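Section 5.1 Outputs to date
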Amino acid sequence: MACRSGCPTQDHENWGACTRAANLQVQPDIMGAPARRGWDGELKAYADARRQGLQPSGTTMPKIRQAVEAADA
């Protein structure tokens, strides 16, 4: 089998020819800058909480805030 599994024709002589025919392209930036900043901010807040000895139940801001508030109480 020379073609990719998603090839509609399955008639290319090799995998490279099949891929070139499909004109596949790599998208360099799937997440936009605003989404990436939010993602990075959440991960930084999670890391900060872990450094304080807390164990949030997840990496989202509501879960991080809940762990910090529980520790403060």
